[in-house]
């Protein structure tokens, strides 16, 4: 027997209020009986003072009792008293299935013909058992939870569909965000409009970050999946070119022991043209001793200019193999070929030799060939019979053969300004020198005026294809040769002409999920781009000097920042950081729902009739109808008199 | 649907052996069936007396003169036709208990009328409350009793009792004294003793029939009561219990006793009637004992 519309507390509160009101009215009204008498003359002698305290007595207890019982019956009718168990009313349950990466760990090793069972298999089994235990009239929504909460079904009354959805659930690549899943479950139950059932979490309780806050879920149940599994895995791999030697990759590998026992693991790195194919060459091996819960880093140096795949492996393998191996694709290191046609090659040799990415070839002007086969051509005070087909830098060309028209030839003029707001003028600050002799060019509107004297530009860059830079003077033969601006100018010119050669690479292997990429201090936020392998953009945020983005699927994400490129190979699974401390008020284990004994029977019609009949009887027996009879007998006479 | 008759035939037949009684001899009245203390020109021989000068020679007993040679005069008993008047209370106080008292008073009045009409008495009926109502003359014997019932049936209670005003009007209307039957609860806030005494002082013989219901004499209620006077509408709040009930009944009985004393002192009769008693029992019991009827 249960109430459908009101809780027992609400019913008692309403009935108590109504009873108190009725009793008060009773004491005020019914305690004083109104009576019409023939005369008052004899009552005066019988009169005695009215005692207020007497009013507390119930003069007509049967009437009051009848009224209270009638009102209780009516209230029960409003509350819809039903025969049957309340559990028979359908409810909506939310079944949260842990599909984090950790669920792919093997719970037990394969034994004979029995294949190895993963934590996901156990979780699916428990989820199916719960679905079978829930009464048939209840609906269940399956929610898959890893870093993102994804509803797999709606509130589903069909158990077959629910079982299919459970069977189709597979471990993801991210760690569990339980707070998000529980919050979603609470909201979806509130929006369903039906009687909320349980929120059941099936999983290990290993969380990505922090404990879920207080969500006010009193109907939470935890079906735990045992996961006493030792695991040691790769956390991240970082690869970057050495600052001292551009041919050397500096490799940093982070390994963590997730288990409760100390582990000794061997970290082996190899490099090859394909991730799994033959031809691999070992890069290095280190033996790591890892205490429980500890994280260790190992560093390697590897020299190569070739492209290939760097593979890191942990030995021996454990129950969770997804983080025992990681592969990172390394880009090739290419050189900028420069052919210098100069009669005085020693003037430019120090400038070009400063950069390891530049391979300079010095030739006399007599060996000039217009086809440089993709190399950058530097023409030192030389007028070629035919202009180079590729990119070129012209140093103090003769006026007759200059690719940019020469406006005038000036002598002993002070240098005035640099093009400071362009990468070509980055770092160029020197102004206090004079040029003994220089050509002043007639720049086209699209030309970049890198350096100027008072009468006009003396260094002009012409973008397009091919790129062209003309200097009106020879830096090594002018007063500029003692300034820092000279190598900076050539570095800027080479970087502008061939930006791909000078791009700095940083490669990381990390786990999917939220990635936090620290940026160099000189990186400007304006030109930042984050793209996937297919070129699609990835949303990101900037917090200080760190860039954050999220990806839920394994893959490669590139962060482009001016001349830098950060490559994140997100192939490692995201594992847990903490274990959920289950509150004491959370129910555990498989529930036993009370089976409905019979269909609920509505009683409100009979209760309403009984309550109404009780009030009518009270009215007839004790109410104003009876008291009014005496007055009714007077009424016809009074009416006739009036007529 | 015809209303039930006030008096049924069987009951009326029982009344035919009764006679309205009065004790006073009213001067100047002849006819009727009641004996008078005064001798006169009646049909029944009363006595002899010596002849005096001026007596009617037709009444001389000549046989006695022939035998005794002395004049004796025969005296005959006078049967005066005494006016019987009946005052029926129509005030609101008679209304209590769903017209219980009024119905009862109406039946009692009808029965007494029938008794009088059987003996060829003339009875004048007046309803009253704060003034005297329209007169209805009942005469002509039992065969004229039908209109009497119609008259009584058409009466309805209403108004506030004012005995003094009613009696003044009554006395001024009837200079000839007679038997006056007052059927009422005598519940007048100003008191009715003075008015009744006023009526007796003018030579009327009073027959007071006080009608009360059981609730008038012994109120059955308990607790805190808010009382309303049926006539004046004035209200009163009392705390009523057994002791108060005893005081109330005592006051009621004292008032009834005062009415009885007044009636007896004036040569009349008083009968207190509860509506719980049957009209027949009252007529053949208390009313006979009080010599209201014989």
CATH architecture name of the largest domain in chain A: Sandwich
Distance between the ends of chain B: 37 Å
Strand content of chain A: 25-35%
The count of β-strands of chain B is 11
Helix content of chain A: 10-25%
Q: What is the CATH H-level superfamily of the largest domain in chain A? A: Immunoglobulins
In CATH terms, the superfamily of the largest domain in chain B is: von Willebrand factor, type A domain
Q: Largest beta sheet of chain B, briefly?
A: 6 strands, mixed
How would you describe what is shown here?
The complex is a heterodimer of chains A (643) and B (294). The longest helix of chain A is centred in the N-terminal third of the chain and has 23 residues, at 8-30. Chain A has 4 domains: 2-84 and 603-642, no CATH class; 90-229, von Willebrand factor, type A domain (Rossmann fold, 3-Layer(aba) Sandwich), CATH 3.40.50.410; 232-329 and 503-572, Immunoglobulin-like (Sandwich), CATH 2.60.40; 336-497, Rossmann fold, CATH 3.40.50.880. The radius of gyration of chain A is 45 Å and the shape is elongated. In chain A, strands 20-19-21-22-27-26-25-23-24 form a 9-stranded mixed sheet. In chain A, strand 25 and strand 26 form a beta hairpin. Chain A is an alpha+beta fold. Chain B is an alpha/beta fold and 294 residues long. Chain B folds into 2 domains: 9-25 and 82-289, Rossmann fold (3-Layer(aba) Sandwich); 39-77, no CATH class. Helix content of chain B is 36%, strand content 23%. Chain B is built from 10 helices and 11 strands. Chain B has helices spanning 9-15, 62-68, 96-118, 145-154, 163-173, 193-201, 214-217, 242-265, 279-284, 286-289; strands at 39-40, 44-50, 72-77, 84-89, 123-128, 132-138, 179-184, 205-212, 223-229, 235-240, 269-274. Chain B has a 6-stranded mixed sheet with strand order 6-5-4-7-8-11, sandwiched between helices. Chain B has a 3-stranded antiparallel sheet with strand order 1-3-2, covered by helices on one side. A two-stranded antiparallel ribbon of chain B has the order 9-10. In chain B, a hairpin with a 5-residue loop joins strand 9 and strand 10 (235-240). In chain B, helix 3 (96-118) runs antiparallel to helix 4. The mean pLDDT of chain B is 84. The interface between A and B is large, with 34 and 45 residues. Strand 2 of chain A pairs parallel with strand 9 (223-229) of chain B, so a sheet runs across the interface.
